[in-house]
Design a protein that fits this description.
Largest sheet: 4 strands, antiparallel
Oligomer: single chain
Shape: elongated
Order of helices and strands: EEHHEHE
Helix content: 40-55%
Distance between the termini: 46 Å
Length: 125
């Protein structure tokens, strides 16, 4: 996962986020492994369906959830790591074909931008 600050004009901040397809695939496999014991598929004993079969059956839906989770996580992380508090909800703008990302064939690339709250120093008299 790569997060870079692209612009800082006034109170506007913009970050470019890139998450590799291999990292997305690792998260997908991990999530499918976790749900393996809860899924009962015809032709397999409960919890014995191979991950490759689960990936074929549920991969796109689960990948959509993973992308959504990662966008929320990285958006928050970009601002928290830089000690910034967003005044508005960060907006993601995707630069990739989401069908390719969900299929596991492309990296997830997007920009996140939001206005931040200015820092105030209390005046001591």
């Amino acid at each position: 996962m790569d997060v870079q600050e692209v612009s800082a004009e006034g109170l506007n901040r913009k970050f470019k986020v890139t998450i590799s397809a291999s990292e997305l695939d690792e998260k997908l496999i991990s999530k499918l492994e976790g749900m393996k014991d809860q899924v009962h598929l015809k032709g397999f004993r409960k919890g014995k369906a191979p991950v490759s079969f689960l990936k074929k059956m549920y991969g796109k839906g689960v990948m959509g959830e993973i992308v959504q989770e990662l966008v929320n996580e990285t958006s928050e992380k970009a601002f928290v790591e830089r000690d910034m508090q967003p005044a508005t909800q960060p907006h993601p703008h995707f630069h990739c074909d989401m069908d390719e990302v969900v299929a596991g064939k492309a990296d997830l690339e997007y920009d996140v931008h939001a206005e931040i709250l200015p820092k105030f120093e209390p005046m001591v008299s």
